[in-house]
Design brief:
about 130 residues, mainly alpha, globular, Ataxin-10
């Protein structure tokens, strides 16, 4: 039996492109209050993808092996503000995904991914009553 080597094993999955696309999707579609169900599902999957990526595929810091490199999209204040605001949305699947994102980012990087202002906004958002 001959094994096909048609797949280029020296190539890599285009994570940067997918990360950029998902970040852009989140930031551009959260401004639309009338999202249809399929767009809401794509939005949830985008948040979940970014969350899973930094939670399970993080790269250890070569200088400090007990720490992880923080992905650059976790420095995007606009993206984090939108994800924080989603915790107060009426769609529970989005709320769960955004809470998991925030929880994992705070836990994995020991709180270094959110500024104090962002942490206060998050706390205010989740305790705010409708």
């Amino acid at each position: 039996m001959k094994i096909s080597n048609s797949y280029p094993f020296n190539s890599h999955f285009p994570y940067e492109g997918v990360i950029d696309w998902t970040s852009n999707f989140i930031t551009s579609h959260m401004l639309d209050n009338d999202l249809v169900d399929e767009k809401l599902e794509i939005l949830r999957l985008c948040i979940q993808f970014l969350c899973n990526l930094f939670t399970f595929a993080s790269i250890k810091n070569s200088d400090h092996l007990d720490q992880y490199n923080i992905p650059k999209y976790l420095y995007d204040t606009n993206l984090k503000d939108i994800i924080i605001n989603i915790t107060n949305c009426e769609h529970m699947s989005l709320v769960r995904a955004s809470c998991a994102f925030i929880h994992n980012a705070l836990k994995k990087y020991e709180g270094n991914t959110f500024l104090e202002r962002e942490k206060k906004t998050f706390v205010f958002t989740i305790v705010k009553t409708n």
